[in-house]
From TrEMBL:
Entry's transmembrane regions: 20-40, 46-63
UniProt keyword Transmembrane helix present: yes
The protein, known as: Uncharacterized protein
Keywords for the protein's UniProt record, in alphabetical order: Membrane, Transmembrane, Transmembrane helix
Highest taxon, organism lineage: Bacteria
Length: 68
């Protein structure tokens, strides 16, 4: 009985892991965008580039943490 429920639990864990990674990337990108755009008065292009960079880095860090 326990073996039948294992794949469902693993699938749910995988969804939580990818959701955590996506949330981490989105929050980091939004934070750096708002910081650059409104606090530092950077251009829109520069703010978007930094947001993309920080989002990718944050996703990488979250992925490494989720696989520990």
């Amino acid at each position: 009985m326990r073996d039948l429920s294992s794949p469902a639990v693993q699938g749910s864990g995988a969804m939580k892991k990818w959701g955590f990674i996506a949330m981490h990337a989105a929050v980091a990108a939004a934070f750096i965008f708002l910081l650059q755009r409104f606090s530092l008065n950077a251009s829109l292009e520069s703010s978007l580039l930094w947001a993309l960079t920080f989002g990718v880095c944050a996703a990488g860090l979250a992925y490494k943490q989720a696989n520990r």
